[in-house]
Amino acid sequence: MQSVILGLGAYLVIERLATVGAMFAASILLGRALQPVEQIVGSWRNLVSARGAFLRVRELLAASPPREAGLSLPRPDGRLSVESLTFVPPASSKPILRGVAFGIDPGEVLGVIGPTGAGKSTLARHLVGVYTPSAGAVRLDGSDVSAWARTSLGQHLGYLPQDIELFADTIAANISRFQEGEDQEVILAARMAGVHEMILRLPNGYDTQVGEGGAVLSGGYRQRIGLARAVYGNPSLVVLDEPSSNLDADGDAALTDCIMQLKKSGTTVVIVSHRPSTIGVVDKILVLRDGVAEMFGPRAEIMSRLTRAVPVHAVQGTAS
Ligand SMILES: Nc1ncnc2c1ncn2[C@@H]1O[C@H](COP(=O)(O)OP(=O)(O)OP(=O)(O)O)[C@@H](O)[C@H]1O
Ligand SMILES: [Mg+2]
Fold first, then answer.
1. Which of 102, 147, 249, 277 is the most exposed place for a label (fewest CB within 10 A)?
2. Which pLDDT value is given to residue 226?
3. Do 27 and 126 share a domain, yes or no?
4. What is the mean pLDDT of residues 230-256?
5. pTM exceeds 0.85
6. Distance in Å, CA 176 to ligand 1 centroid
7. Probe ligand 1: pick from 60, 94, 116, 121, max atoms within 8 Å of CB?
8. What is the mean pLDDT of the chain?
9. Which residue, 63, 94, 112, sits at the end of a domain?
């Protein structure tokens, strides 16, 4: 553009239609006038990618519309029933859970076992309403957890995810889930999880900052503080996903003790675990395999079926 403007100016000067001064003045003015156009051309790549991002966000929001507020219900007793639960993740056609159905009564402890990738964590996320089932339902005292008002449902649930997420704040705030409440409640939850003494030994006790993602704490500490967070506020249903993966013998004993206390207070507990010490305290066992509930029943019955199944596999293994 600069060349064309100067070229045209030079031609007009030669033809004596303009002066040299006018030529330079026109060149500078036109250069300024064209600057916005040049800027748009320069940032064209950004405009295109911004448009692409906007379309993707709109698509994503359309695919997961906000939940309706739902009705707040009184504190449930903890009767959990799962009805032919099927889950197909978005952007996939292979179901992760297929027709899983079982039920447990208040105060019962259910152990969920199964090989890696069987869908145990996916089931746990459905029990606490993080995932919405593709078909079937998870009911707590008869009402569907995915339709329950989020804020009131959260008070009645305790959840320890497999990859515990702590937030950059104090230990007390993490245990109380950032809710204003009695300090006594925080200490009660910590005592229940068997971490009270452990927290007191830290430099700032309950006011210790855990750092981004709980980085200041070791994996075992994080897991035990996650357990305290799960039992905070006397929930009706507690779901623990591999709560003992980072625990030593002491931690394991504290966990077993915590489950016994929950059971005594009538809280329903679902625990994903393979540890014999944890399985020892459960009332019922659910065996998941490839997203299907392979076995469900009282612990003694399932354990004897499982141990009976082992020699059969071993014989088949040697035969083939
Ligand atoms: N939101 C999702 N989208 C797509 N696939 C998913 C999603 N969630 C889970 N999966 C897949 O579902 C399968 C089951 O995962 P899940 O985490 O439930 O297994 P798991 O039984 O908990 O295994 P582990 O014992 O290793 O914890 C895996 O193959 C996983 O990749
Ligand atoms: Mg898992």
1. 249
2. 94
3. no
4. 91
5. no
6. 28
7. 121
8. 88
9. 63
